[in-house]
Amino acid sequence: MARIERVELSMVVLEPKVKRVDAIQSFVAQETPIVRVFDSDGAIGIGYSYTIGTGGHSVLELLARTFAPALIGREAAMVEQIWRDLLFLSHATSVGAITSLALAAVDTALWDLRCRKAGLPLHVMAGGAQDKVRLYTTEGGWLQLDQAAIVADALKAQADGFGGCKIKVGRPVREDVGRLIAVREAVGDGFEIFTDANQAFAVDEAIRRAHHYREADIGWFEEPLPADDVDGHVRLAASTSIPIAVGESIYSPSHFRDYLQRRACSVVQVDVARIGGITPWLKVAHVAESFNVAVCPHFLMELHVGLCCAVPNARWVEYIPQLDGVTGRTMRIEGGYALPSQEPGLGIDWDEQALAALQAEGSARRITAR
């Protein structure tokens, strides 16, 4: 094994490829903290995290002031031990988004380092359960788009081989239903339509809308309620045959356990950045497997494709391209399936020149032994 000698930090800001508006917010920018870990063998691991426009500098400060200094001198291969130690080090601010996002940047870098040194791609190192996963697109279903636009995008996605699309909901209920029915009539029965409310509703409204959305034969109702309302999700799930999907706003494996034990969801959308890295992501996926529940992660398709192929219960990868401008090779897509990289590491081919051009001013940090 080899000890960590240096950690380098930076942050790039990526503009959305399309305008993205949902029921409660707009995705204005992807602040992307990047962690590079260097060990005494000369190996490098690169990890990252993200925000949707705010909080990136707070993540960077937590990394620079607390997590990165704590990595120096540690055995880089002891990934689980390091993750737990950093979680305890930050216990006064856990569970929370900033802490989880910072943990994820470190943990993904350590997994990248581990995979590179082993000569294995992430999906093999983490389990090796599948060689491809179905792909659905969210890029044409944003709430600000009119009905004609979302129908046209769904038809294009179907022609391109995607297995489904996601439509944002949160307009007046009959308007939402009209949009969903228009897409269903256009694509027919063999194409999945998923819906996403982004935590917009109270329980009574979510129950009402689930009743109306059934007419479009939707594949799931995503984030219908605030993520901390487990009891509300129990009531909703018991009231409808529509699968209830949660996870992108959950920051603790034990919170997922509560949802699963109480039958409050039937699709788990664990996000590798928001759960705190690959180490806890795999725990959540395996717990979901024990409940016979599918994993369909949120965002970060370039990283999630490897994780989905590592576990047997992953069903879908969400297509929202965001790293194309700062990577060389993009995620492989064949026949509507996402295929994991066969290269050692996370499988993300970072373009260093592009990263340097987009680096936020003052974000570069270098931490070594004192």
What would you say this structure looks like, in words?
- The protein is an alpha/beta fold and 370 residues long.
- The chain has two domains: 4-119 and 350-368, 2-Layer Sandwich (Enolase-like, domain 1); 123-339, Enolase-like C-terminal domain (TIM Barrel), CATH 3.20.20.
- The chain is 37% helix and 18% strand.
- It is built from twelve helices and 14 strands.
- The chain has helices at 56-71, 79-89, 97-118, 122-125, 147-159, 173-187, 203-213, 230-239, 253-261, 278-290, 301-308, 352-357, and strands at 4-14, 30-39, 44-48, 133-137, 164-168, 192-196, 220-222, 244-246, 267-268, 294-295, 316-319, 332-334, 337-339, 365-368.
- Strands 4, 5, 6, 7, 8, 9, 10, 11, 12 and 13 form a ten-stranded mixed sheet that branches. Strands 3-2-1-14 form a four-stranded antiparallel sheet.
- Helix 6 (173-187) links the parallel strand 5 and strand 6.
- The model has no long low-confidence stretch (mean pLDDT 97).
Which helices and strands, and how do they pair?
Elements: E1 4-14, E2 30-39, E3 44-48, H1 56-71, H2 79-89, H3 97-118, H4 122-125, E4 133-137, H5 147-159, E5 164-168, H6 173-187, E6 192-196, H7 203-213, E7 220-222, H8 230-239, E8 244-246, H9 253-261, E9 267-268, H10 278-290, E10 294-295, H11 301-308, E11 316-319, E12 332-334, E13 337-339, H12 352-357, E14 365-368
Helix pairs in contact: 1-3, 2-3, 5-6, 7-8, 9-10
